[in-house]
Every structure is written in structure tokens, then in C-alpha cells.
Amino acid sequence: MRYLGLIIVIALSGCNTVVERANSPAPALTADDWLAGSDMPRMQDRAMSAADVASFLRRTGFEPSPDEIRPYVGQPRSALIRATLDNLTTRPVDGAPAWALTEPRYWGNESRTRVENDRFRSARDAEVGMMRQWWVQQMIQSPSPMAERMVLFWDNTFVVGYSGLNNRSHALWGHHQLLRTHAVGDYRQLLAGIVRDPAVLRYLDNTSNTKEAPNENLARELFELYSLGEGNYSERDIKQAALALTGWGETDRGGTRFQLKPWAMAGGSKAILGQRGHFDGDDLPALILDTPAAARYVVTGLYHEFISSQAAPAGAIDDFARAFRDTGYQIDQLLQVMLESAYFWDPNHQGMGVKSPAEFVVGTVRATQTDDVALVKLVAAIQAQGQNLLDPPDVSGYDGGIDWLAPEYLIERQRFAEFYQTEWHSPGSTPSAPQMMGTDSLRIMLGGEAYQGPPEFWVTINHDGGTWYSDEYSVAHARDTERLGRYQDKSNIEWAPYHVPIPDSLTGITRIGVRFIRDAAGNGGDRNLFVAGVDYQGRQRAASQGTQSPGCRGDSSGAKRNPGYLYCSGELSFEWAETGTSLVPDIAPIDGALNTREWVLGWMNDENDRWRSINFMFDGLEFEGREWAFFGFKYSISERGERQLQITGRDCIPECFERWPTKAWRDKAGVPSVSVPLRGLHQWSMEHYDGLSKADRALVKALIGLAPQAEQLLKRPREDRYPERTTFWLAELATFAEYANDRRWKTGDAVALVELSPKRDGDNQMGMGNMMAAAATRYRPASGVKTADQWQASAAQLGPLDWALATPTAVDEYAQLLVNSAYFLR
To answer: Which of 784, 813, 800 is nearest to 54 (CA)?
Structure first.
């Protein structure tokens, strides 16, 4: 069942009609048409000075460079507005990062050991760290800074934080892509996508929202923070909307996607926001947009984003809200109305906004047209100033405005400005990583925490001639724990590649080690070294493939659970022999066997349930010429003690069977399922089994024949969170195995199970090649790269530096620009 990209029409029991959800209609009016018939105060379309151009670009995007300003000096305001809107695009300059293109196996954690689960989570954390760097790079390079500001705006509106996603880095990536896709498009489609977004559904606990136990989290935040604002709905609206959202969930089987759970849905009529009907989650966006508060909520946020952080003048919100509704909720049309309004160009509104940390740091790079500062340092500076991209403190996001200038954050702004000023005028004076000459180099992906100095390390290499020791190096970008505290989450760690030269004379290398030296800690902080992996001569090893020793005193097992996180002095080492590098030997599929990448234990339900079930899943399956990307089944014990094999259409991609029996059970969404008792066939079960094709009956027999091996699967080393359930099923599977030997299930020769790549290490690591390549990519500001001297010559063509700050402030020297407090404003 492919749910991605589909709008599904569902007739709930008791519904008299089904309303087809059509594609969004064309806007009722264009912005030009609306403006022509409106009495909203309009701008005067006068020629612009350099200061006028810079103010517009600063407020609608990021701090501009002289090259971005110069073409519009002397041009009318309308020319700059049209150029900005015509070039609106959120298309990434560099495309998606490699890790985002292929999902690991999120499901089946019950089959992993504790160490494997820890490594899996660390790999997903690293992906989010690289995603944060990817996003900052897009902001620096984008030819459409206003579109990138809109992505930032929606990210702080439809808030989802990684720490609330249970390590679902790919769900977070999907959420970001949803915002990016609709950031300057149709708001109706954006809102419709939000209520089906797997990240939103998981983050706000809607996966546990059922008719028996409604969960109001998503309904409440959808109204309060996402679309309407406080005071524009009632508690009854929340409760009824929560019922409309029952059964709206997500799954990661076959890829992260929306999944409807009909058995959890509450039918019947519901009264929401003044309307009554048989509503479900798909109806909520339209109900929201039918309320006047919806348009006002969006335009108020955009007013504070692009015009002023102060209260809006009388009439401004009314005008913009009316324009948003009349233009069919087209975001780009609303932006045109706002930019052509007198409100935007009112001099009293200029310099009345505070740049967010991302705006401040990204704008500095774009404006100065330099690429000297490592990307990892830019991201770390944004974090230090209080903005943790992709993981805000809670669902309310960041208040912004004057809060960005709280004393602890203002100090970090000034610190970054002083640091960047030095880099800008003396590039290379504070290198971001060891800069060394060598005949060859070992690349190490490192992070760290500093305390009374950065973490230090050296490299050891065992080779034919003995052991070689490198010089000592330090991790320059490590987080200063005395100033900023320790990382609160591994996903916040910023990774960067460090290069260590290796002599040509080293041959026959068998082992490479990275040793953390001079550990230190105190009441004010901690010094730690983090190693994600190494890359040498085209061969990579992730930390999960290494051996760490020793662990910290009293927690030696921590080194096994979290290899690469050196919280105490020690070493992470990698075997480097030329032979035997494959983690899993190649295994060939066998004709007639159940061939799978891995057979995985899914879950065992609670012992208090009337039916007891144990779920198994194939990570890819091939059987007698047929293939599935994903296939699940379960052994069940009914409340009367009947042992059954159960298969449901929701657990297979593509369809489980060539054809489903006409008598198969179907849920409210029409999803079929069959049950086959292993003994004592009833009429209905015979109709299920006999209604299958010959090939499908052969598949059922093969799955029943796995019962003897299921016991061995359950005994494999794994993190057993429910030992009482394991004990129960180890006993019961013996009975299933006995029944599987009945003549009716025999197929002649026993069907073999072939696992082609069990314990796939790729799920437990982020591909080091991808990570190294992403971290090594050098960003290029949108308007090009210039030396400090070239920049000053370019800026001089615009005259005095009064254009370079949001408020009229005397700046006599270029060196004063970045450290002036007016530079923090827009």
C-alpha cells in the first residue's frame, strides 16, 4: 500500500456522504489584481539609494554583499521587488546529502543487541549533525535568500525537534523537505501536508491517538501554535479535533510514511470550529482556513519576520489577512502585497528587527564574500548564540526578537563578530583543522568538548616496520564547556574532518588508532574527544567498526556501547589488514528458499491482550521468483487457544499475495488480512486458505514451516526489554513447531531460510565516505568569493558605509563593521 503522495478518501461507518478532496483551486486573485482594487496604503515607487537596497535585502533575506546591492542602486523599488519574487526558489544548490537518499532499517530494534542499538542511535545523531551543516550551507549559497528565510520561518512555525523523534533522522529530513517544497507556494497544501507528516505525527504523539484513548497533543498544537493562535478555538474544538485525528499515524516499514490505522479511528459526527460533519484529519486544514483567525495568524508572523518586531499599526494585519484569503492562500502573492505596502517601506520600521543567530552568521558570510571560516565553526556559532537548528527546546520554537540579545547570547555574538573579523582580514590565522603538508593523509572525522583547552590526540599505526606515532593535534572547533556547557544531545555534536600526514615509508599497515590524551574535568566543564571514523587511501571505517579501550572507570561497557565517544583518555583502534575487510561474507540466494537480507523479530504484544502475537519481518524477501521490499507476518494465539498464522496487507510491499481471497477480512480502509489456523480449520479459515493461489499457498506453507527456526531467532543475542514475553513465546513456539510438522503443511523438502546480510552494519553507521565528502565540501557564498581587499574596493564603489548597517551609524573603518551593535539588527 503506497500512501506517500496520495489523498485517500475514506467513508467512515455511519457516514451518509463522502466528500472528494480535489486539488487546490487556482487563486481567486493575483497580487496585482488585489492591489489594483485595494485601498491598502501603497509604497511610493521611488529610486533607491545603496542604503535603501541594503535595507530591503537585509530584511527580506540575509545581510547583502556590495555585489548584491550595486545593480539596484538608482532603480525603482518595484524592480527590486520583482527580481526578488521572480527568483523565489527553495531548490537546494547542492541537492540532498547522500545519507538522506537511503533509509536504514528503523524497525526491528528488538532483534538488535544493546550495543547495536546504541550504535544505531549514534549514527542517526551524526546524520542530523550533518543535516544542520547542509542547511547552513544552503542558506549561504542560495540565490534566493528570501526563500531560505521562509524555510526558517516555517521551521519555527511548524516546529518539530529531533530529540522528540526517537532518532528518526529521515523523518526529520522529510519534514524539512515538506517545508522547503511549500515554503513560498500554496499554504493550503502546506497545512494539508503537515497533518499527514510522519515527523509531526510522531513528535506530537498522535501515533498513540485512538478512539479508546484520544491524545490531544497534535490537535492542541495544531490550533494554538501551528495555525490559529491562542483564543481562537475552544477546549471542545481541541477534543473534537483530536477525535478527527484518531488513527492518523506513521510507519517506517517500507520507508517512513503516513499510515492510516482504521481500527483506531473514531467515527461519527464532530463539531469543530463552528462546523459539524463526519470529519477526519484531512478535513482539518479546510476547517482551519474557514476561520478568519487563520490568515491573521500567518500574516502576523510574517509581519514580525519581515517588517518589524514591534506591534503592527492599525489596519496592516487586516489588509494582509484579506489579501492572503483573496489570493487563495498563495504565499508568494502575499509576500508581494506585503513588500509593495507602505508598511514595509515606512522608515520607522527599519532596524526594528533582531537577526536570529542563523541570520546573523549566514548573513556575515554572504555579505563579506569569504569562505575562510570552516562550516563547522559557523554552525557551532549559531548554537552558541542560542539557536539549535532542527532541535528547538520545545514545540513553541523560538520567540526571537529581543530574546536573541539576552546577555549570554549577546556575548557570543560579540565573540563571533570579533573572531570573524580576524578571519576576514587575516584568513588562516585561526585554522579550523590541522593544516599540514604530507605525502599522504589520514582523514579523521572529529568532534569534541573543551575544558581549559581543547581535546588533544595523536595517531598510532602498526605496520611492517613496527609502530609509527604522529605529532599531537588538537580539535580546534570543540565546544567550550566552561562557556556553553556540555552537549545535551549527541545530535548537537558538530563534526569536521582533520588531516594527519602519513609517511610514504609505512607499508603493510595492520592497525590504525586514534588516542585521546590529557583528559580533564572539573566543576566548570569536561574535556572529551569524539571520533566518528577514519578515511585512508579510499578506505573508510566508522567508529562502530573499531575497538575502544579502556572505558571510563566504573563504566567499561560504555566503550562497547558508544565506540568513538572518548569520555576518558583511551584509544579507538581499527583493524586495517588488506584482507578480510568484509564485515559479512557474501552469501548467495538459493532457488526455492526464503531469501532475505535479514529475518527480524518485530514485536511481541502485551500479555494482558486477549490475543497473544509475535510479529516477524523480512527485510526484503525473494521466494520462487517473487520479490517484496518488505514482508511481515505473525504467529498468534487466540483467546480460545488456537494457533494461527496471520498476514495483513499493511505489512507487505508490494502486495502480500497474487490475489487476496474473496472472503479475506477487510478493515475500514479496505486493507485485507487472512488467518490460517495451524490445526482445526474452520469454514472461514478454509475459505481464507483455499481462496489463495497455488503460489500463495506455497508461501503460507513456507512461513508456517519457519516455526522451528523462530525459536532460534528468539534466542539470538539481543536487547531483551520484555523477558517475560520471551519466556512465554519460547515455550509456545515449540507448539507451533510441532503443528508445522502436520502433513497438510509439508512441502516435500523443507524450505530453507537464507539470510544474505544479517546484522547489516550499514544501519549502525552513517556511511563514512558520505560523511567525509559532505564535511569536506567547501561552501561558496551566493555572490562569489573575494579577498578582504577586493571586498573593500567593491564596497567603496557604493560610497560611505552608511548602507552597511540597519540604523544610521557612523563607521569610519571597515574593521569596525562587524563588531558594531547595529549590525545585529535588520
So the answer is: 800
